[in-house]
Amino acid sequence: IMASGLKGSEILKIAADIRAMLAEGKEICNLTVGDFSPTQFRIPKLLEDSIKDALTKGETNYPPTDGVLPLKKAVQEFYRNWLKLDHPLDSIVVTSGSRPGIFATYSTLVDPGDVVVYPVPTWNNNHYCHLVGAIGRPVVCGVEDAFLPTRALLEDAVKGARLISLNSPLNPTGTAFSAEALADICDLVLEENELRKHTGERPLYVMYDQVYWMLTFGKTAHVNPVSLRPAMAEYTVFVDGISKAFAATGVRVGWAVGPKDIIQHMASLLAHVGAWSPRAEQIATAKLLSDTNEVLAFSSTMRAGVQQRLVALYSGITSLHHEGFPVSAISPMGAIHLSVQFSLNGKRTPFGEVLSTNEDIRQYLLQEARLAVVPFQAFGSMENTGWFRLSVGTVSVQEIENMVGRLRHALSKLA
Questions:
Q1: CA 315, 318, 320, 326 torsion: positive or negative?
Q2: DSSP character string of 367-398
Q3: pLDDT value of residue 26
């Protein structure tokens, strides 16, 4: 029953349209996937060489199910040095990318019928709720709060809930929590759990997905619950990995860090699933995270490359806005995403069709501007307000600039 009711990825469905156009030889500015093209962003040379070296040395057998010790130690020191977070080794579990950490957090903390609170738009929380039989309690967040939840929005929602899922920088919007906003949410969680100690109700936990934390821009600084409120360590599970910060989505090395008892249960669950990362990749990642100079050098180049593309995209959309076209964007704060609103509902195409939904807008942009984007409906939003996620990890600045010209022409044809 669970599997039959599970929906596939909305983004992968969109990819089918793009593949068909590419097969026809058309140039597409593909801003749909939250991935990196190796032609644009290659993994660190140290990581690549260390994987090869580990394979040459025969590091091809089963790793420990919770992660090889050198990597757990490297994650521990990485968090100490970069985030000022201090967790014992048995509070760390290594996973095959970040997704198993999310699934294990849900499966360990949430029983069928439990309530999970998550913001909308958000990535895949509705699907994880379905997987574990949870009752999703989506909290709709608006542009006035950069599509991020606030204490005011969460205060009623957390009553009776078992888990809050938070992500910063946020996929799909490319926005990030301020210290003040996140601290307010932490205070709400701590106050709620203090009340529950007197009623016997199970505590409320926070899953904090910070896989994009090394990709922040301008004055935006990454913040996390435990650094802001140390008492949150008892209730916070971090999900993280190398996939985004090091352009290593296919290398499949991630980790979860949190309360010892929760992490140990997660590790046991994942051991039965076999969701551990390959041994050679783990050993190589340990070397990478332990080399501060390499991390600094790569991070600087990586961040600059992503920011350059986001700024080009944001500038292009903003210039169209100033020209009078009904488009706008939120200034990029983090991740590889830009939130763009195409306010085209009610517009008539040259073919006499009226754009009435985000799907109509998506199809028009793909056909007429050869611009591939993902509507917020793929991230749980229900309204057709014209908001889309645009991801820049697989394109060049030149491709973005070429697309802006096509977009201008496509918008000018609308009545």
A1: positive
A2: HHS-EE-EEGGGGT--S-S-EEEEE-TT--HH
A3: 87
